[in-house]
Each structure stands twice: as C-alpha cells, then as structure tokens.
C-alpha cells in the first residue's frame, strides 16, 4: 500500500496529495494522520490539494473526517490549494465542506495555522 | 459518429470496475476522452467527478461492473456518453435513492444525486435483483 507522506514541521503536519488517490489510500491517510497527530502532539494540519484534478464525495468526506478527527485530537486543519474547477464541481455535486478552514495556498494556510496555534 | 483524429481512437470502448485502482483508471480515461473532445477544464472536471461517483457505486453497491463510453457528434456538437453497469442487487426505490443525503450506509448519499447535477442527461435503469445501469451524457 502506497502512503501519502506526512511532513512534520514543529507543531504542524504538512500533507501534499500529489497522486490520484484510490479510496483505500485516502482511508490510509486518515489513519496515518490521526496517528501522527497523537504521536507528535501536533496542533495543526495543513492539507495541500493543489495537485488534485478532482475531488469527489469520497475524498470530500475524507477531508471532512480528517478535520473532525483532528479537532477532537486538539489540532486545527486547513485545506489549501483547491483548483477553481474542482471548487465549482464540488459545490455543484452538493459538497461545500462546511466547517473546514480553507486558504488559497500553502503560505496563507501556514499563516492561518500559526495564528491559531 | 465522431471520428477521432488522435491516438485515443482505441479499439476498446469499455473498462472494468472491479477495484479501487480500476476506478482511478476509469476517471483517467474519462479525463482523456473529455480532453480529446475539447471540453473546458470545468466541464472535464464535472464529467470526471460524475464518473468517479458512478464507478464507485458500481463497485461498492453492485459488486463490480464496467464503464462503457461513446463519443457523440450531434450536428457538430460533441459530447461524451458513459454507461456504468453492474449485476448487483439493484435499487428498489430509485426516487428515494436519487435524494440528496440518502445512503444505504456506506457513503454520504451524494453520489447519484450529485452525479446527476454534473451532467446534461442522466438515465438510470434498475430493478431489485436485476443490477443497475446508469447512463450519463455531457455535451461540450
């Protein structure tokens, strides 16, 4: 099973999804991230999806679930880099990712997390 | 029928949907087909996303199936028609299954209803015990 790499930067975790994930890989990321948050006592998670050409309901749910699990583990999540075509499609699909903090790019996402940590 | 001018004119016009990996391959195929047809980036993304939802339904609820594709040309207007079929248990009440938020338990319940919103034409043919076939079309 291929894992999505999780980078640790001080109190933050950084995930850049660079591949067209199959469903099992998305679930694995959820597991890996929650384990990493607990292990390192991370206060924030940044998920960069700028390379993703598509977000469907499964990946949308994974993102929502990660954000919820992280919150329970006392970490904030910021989703960054969503492509405009993906945002348009996601909303039309019926998912507006309520409750998920977002930022336009990694830089702004990091700034947002650092303010909250 | 639209005549393909590029190497995409493959002999195959269907792909199996039996694993997570084959869902990924199916959406990559839809991406290539929509690019070939000259769809805008937003339209490509909508068709790929709808295909991903329906491919997953065929796998998760239908126990696996296949996706067929057809390139359309209606008086110069090009389109893509995709058919997802499985031999699974079928859907007893399609109207309810098409409702936002309805789920048989494994998903968000946005798959069918969401996919319908992303395409121009949507048809579903299903009966309990007789499998499910969903056909979607999007025009350029």
CATH class of chain A: Alpha Beta
Number of domains of chain A: 1
Class from secondary-structure proportions of chain B? alpha+beta
Mean pLDDT of chain A: 95
Specify Rg of chain B, calculated over alpha carbons.
15 Å
Which residues of chain B form runs of ≥5 with pLDDT under 50?
A: 1-7
Q: CATH topology of chain A, which one?
A: Transcription Regulator spoIIAA
Q: Determine the mean pLDDT of chain B.
A: 88
Alpha-beta classification of chain A: alpha/beta
Percent of residues in beta strands of chain A: 15-25%
User: Any idea what the CATH superfamily of chain B is called?
Assistant: Histidine kinase-like ATPase, C-terminal domain
Tell me the distance between the termini of chain B. Answer: 15 Å
- How many helices of chain B in DSSP terms? 4
Question: How would you characterize the largest beta sheet of chain B?
Answer: 5 strands, antiparallel
- Would you identify the CATH architecture of chain A? 2-Layer Sandwich
Which architecture of chain B per CATH?
2-Layer Sandwich
**Which word captures the global form of chain A?**
globular
């Amino acid at each position: 099973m291929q894992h999505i790499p999780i980078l640790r930067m001080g109190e933050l975790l950084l995930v850049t999804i660079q591949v067209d994930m199959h469903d099992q890989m998305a679930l694995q990321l959820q597991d890996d991230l929650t384990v990493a948050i607990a292990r390192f006592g991370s206060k924030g998670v940044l998920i960069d999806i700028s390379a993703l050409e598509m977000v469907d309901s499964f990946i949308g749910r994974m993102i929502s679930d990660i954000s919820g699990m992280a919150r329970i583990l006392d970490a904030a999540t910021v989703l960054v880099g969503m492509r405009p075509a993906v945002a348009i499609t996601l909303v039309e699909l019926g998912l507006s990712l309520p409750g998920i903090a977002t930022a336009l790019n990694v830089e702004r996402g990091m700034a947002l997390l650092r303010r909250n940590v | 029928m639209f005549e393909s001018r590029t190497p995409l004119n493959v002999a195959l016009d269907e792909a199996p949907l039996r694993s997570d990996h084959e869902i990924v391959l199916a959406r990559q195929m839809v991406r290539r087909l929509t690019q070939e047809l000259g769809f805008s980036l937003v339209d490509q993304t909508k068709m790929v996303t709808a295909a991903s939802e329906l491919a997953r339904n065929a796998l998760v609820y239908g126990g696996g199936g296949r996706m067929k594709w057809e390139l359309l040309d209606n008086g110069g207007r090009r389109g893509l028609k995709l058919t997802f079929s499985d031999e699974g248990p079928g859907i007893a009440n399609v109207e309810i299954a098409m409702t936002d938020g309805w789920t048989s338990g494994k998903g968000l319940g946005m798959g069918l209803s969401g996919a319908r919103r992303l395409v121009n034409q949507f048809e579903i043919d299903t009966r309990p015990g007789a499998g499910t076939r969903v056909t979607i079309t999007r025009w350029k």
